[in-house]
């Protein structure tokens, strides 16, 4: 029987290849959607796992989380710096870290933050050490810069037409181990450096006071103001003191911030802080809650794509039944000859059923492998762009899906097999 099936498939190899490819492509579409959606859920949840509470100015909670945790560039409203000072002294807070962004270098986002955030979210350094001065930086594992490299930040990005901050240079002092999060692609610098680069902070305010209190003639002041304005347009309002020590003792007159990451000491403290800072000009969110709403959107998209995949699989199944039934009609003489030479009805049924089932099963197996490869390629491209590692792989749910598809294939293959089983040998030979 097996040799007969093999000979028949060799004779009709082109049709067999077409059947396998059709089934494989239809299966791969559904598998890719399922694997990619699951990987995106797991990867994003892991990326946000170490951040319990995010506080920012009133606005979009989704954009607040995407910008502060997933480092997606977007303009956020600023909340008063006194919020940071208040949180840093709150006994319910284990650590608090401001997040300042807007600059980049070589396509990597430059994020202003504190040593507390770095020390609390990673275990040690892959190489080098923590930044200690205003002109020092720590880079994530995916940043292709060695310790000692120079960083000349750009306002915004090159795609947005940003300009390099003149006279501002950071030196890389440490490289972090991989975390599988967007922070692997980030360049981390002291928050005070970000403030000073953009003309914020005490040093800049002190310079402004000296400028306004000086005794220069009005014409000189106007010229100086014009020169300063031109310099600010070019340099984006400030510079850094590369050798200044990092100061993370925040006071009420700290500059405004787009977001603050907070680690509460207990779960009860987290809910109290969230309630307290969800009024007025501030907005506190749990990243997990925001991701849950995003997952609901992903689930809706998955349903649509899964429906498309199921529709394509149904069309392929219908086409296969039609082609196979037609093929059985063309093979009436062959089947009649088998019956005339003494082949039992069950043997004829088994030959036709097994031939089609093997082709469909091979297509399903190839489709699962193709879907896995496609999902992995998409995940790799997503990781390169966002830094989020997406864990693509099969689970027990996929095994159940494979069993369901194989069962459906067995039923599908029985349709032409029953037709062959019921065919009269005498009628077949007369045809």
TrEMBL record:
Its main location: membrane. Keywords: Cell membrane, Membrane, Transmembrane, Transmembrane helix. It holds the Pfam family FtsX. Residues 202-214, 226-239 have a biased composition (Basic and acidic residues). Residues 315-424 form the ABC3 transporter permease C-terminal domain. The chain crosses the membrane at residues 303-325, 346-379, 399-421. It comes from the Bacteria. It is found in: Cell membrane. One of its GO terms (cellular component) is plasma membrane. It is a multi-pass membrane protein. Residues 202-239 are annotated as: Disordered. This is ABC transporter permease. It comes from Neorhizobium galegae.
